[in-house]
Automatic annotation (TrEMBL):
The keyword 4Fe-4S does not apply. It comes from [Ruminococcus] torques. Keywords: Membrane, Transmembrane, Transmembrane helix. InterPro entries: Ig-like_bact (IPR022038), Ig-like_fold (IPR013783). This is Protein of uncharacterized function (DUF3607). Residues 274-349 form the Ig-like domain. The chain crosses the membrane at residues 425-446. Signal peptide: none annotated.
Length: 454
């Protein structure tokens, strides 16, 4: 006996047709003496079983086959006695199941793509003739809530189970767009995956930022504006919506079409989406912006993004910070060290400043240190044997950079080092020595000549 399909997801369970071939090797073969016993049952009740097909012969080798194609639990046994009365070795009965039917999954007490502002307690039930508990994976995930396994009241049903969730909490944090996903796999490996998407919206609209907009708002500070893309989701259609912004205390109403566009989706009986694209040209001026999206739905709920704590606040800063070093000049200082002060200011805030000596960063001060020092950072210049080139480079929160004027300063307690690094004094000293030496030479030469003439 041989089978063409031995790929069982679980031992004994197959999700495709299975054909068995009976082979008898006998010279005195008599097909009438082959006794094939096949039974078929579905959920405990007998169903029509297939029969062994006709025999084909090739010398002493005789074969016949039977295909198991219908969903059923099968047994298959075969006996044979030849013309001389010799019985074949006893064959151990085969038992297996063919199941080509996917599990059934049904969500209840919730509608796909529905918006809900009352009781929201969805459920799901699933069943299969060859159901197995380990093949069940049901999760729920919100746009602002992590994926979790579904929990609720579990009830056994015929060939499966039913789960009924409790009502979602009636608080603003629970409002979200949720997706419930059910993946059910039976013993034969058949799999059904279904999902239902719905919103819990008892407190007005939900707002979702595009990935680019969310990153832009997370950064808070920028040196150039970007288009803002925001999607508003509501249980009902909106009867009014408008957008405005405040810039350093001044409010401006934006015009649909020219200042922003709106793309609407969602039909009757489903949730409504309004995707606003607010053009970057509205935010060319420097300053602190706060954008408000106002709306009112058919249920007369008035709302805006700020009420839902989806703030659209950011700062446009195109001006580099100011960096001025004081306490040192183009000079030399007779000391082991010299204190200088880096004076910093910016339209918004300085993120960090680097002290650079001879082209290398020797110290970095972060925003908190700068703010604590009131924008005046003190730095002690250590002594050196030659003049040092000192400057400071600052970066503000928007990414603007600037570098201070460079100062060339000699700090040393050595008089000799100061002397040899003082070019005018050094040159003057050399010239003085040359003149004195020349005068002495001239004096002795003239004197010698006078003595010789006498």
């Amino acid at each position: 006996m041989s089978y063409d399909n031995n790929s069982a997801a679980t031992p004994g369970y197959f999700n495709a047709n299975r054909t068995a071939t009976v082979t008898v090797n006998e010279h005195n073969f008599n097909a009438a003496e082959v006794n094939a016993q096949i039974t078929a049952a579905l959920q405990g009740s007998g169903v029509a079983a297939p029969g062994l097909g006709g025999w084909s012969t090739n010398g002493d080798v005789h074969t016949a086959s039977v295909t198991f194609s219908a969903d059923a639990d099968y047994t298959f046994d075969v006996d044979y006695t030849d013309l001389a009365g010799n019985a074949a070795a006893d064959y151990t009965q085969d038992k297996f199941t063919v199941d080509k039917t996917d599990p059934e999954v049904e969500f209840f007490d919730i509608e796909d793509k529905s918006a809900n502002n009352g009781t929201v307690a969805p459920g799901v039930k699933y069943s299969d003739v060859n159901y197995m508990e380990s093949g069940v994976d049901i999760t729920i995930k919100g746009a602002k809530h992590d994926k979790t396994e579904l929990s609720g009241n579990r009830t056994n049903i015929a060939n499966g189970e039913s789960i009924k969730m409790e009502d979602f909490k009636h608080d603003e944090e629970t409002d979200d767009v949720y997706t419930m996903t059910a993946v059910i796999k039976d013993k034969a490996g058949n799999e059904t995956e279904k999902e239902v998407m719905f919103s819990v919206n008892r407190f007005g609209s939900n707002y979702i930022f595009s990935e680019t907009t969310e990153k832009f708002l997370d950064d808070v500070y920028a040196n150039k504006p970007k288009d803002l893309v925001v999607t508003e989701v509501n249980v009902d259609s909106l009867v009014f919506n408008g957008i405005s912004y405040g810039l350093d205390g001044t409010k401006k109403e934006l015009k649909a079409g020219s200042d922003y566009t709106v793309k609407q989706s969602g039909g009757e009986g489903s949730w409504k989406e309004y995707t606003y694209t607010i053009k970057k040209e509205n935010f060319e001026k420097e300053g602190r912006y706060s954008v408000t999206i106002d709306s009112e739905d058919k249920a007369t709920n008035k709302m805006n993004n700020k009420v839902k704590e989806c703030n659209i606040d950011f700062v446009i800063d195109k001006t580099p910070p100011t960096v001025v070093i004081t306490g040192i000049e183009e000079s030399s200082y007779r000391a082991d060290e010299r204190e200088m002060t880096i004076n910093l200011s910016d339209n918004t805030a300085v993120k960090c400043v680097d002290v650079i000596i001879d082209g290398k960063s020797v110290a970095t001060y972060a925003q908190k240190e700068i703010e604590k020092a009131g924008g005046k950072i003190s730095y002690m210049i250590e002594g050196a044997s030659e003049p040092q080139k000192i400057e400071a480079a600052a970066l503000d929160m928007a990414g603007n950079e600037t570098t201070s004027e460079m100062h060339k300063v000699l700090v040393t307690s050595s008089v000799w080092i100061q002397y040899i690094n003082n070019t005018p004094l050094l040159i003057g000293s050399i010239l003085g020595i040359v003149l004195v030496a020349g005068g002495l030479i001239w004096f002795f030469v003239i004197r010698k000549k006078k003595e010789e003439s006498k």
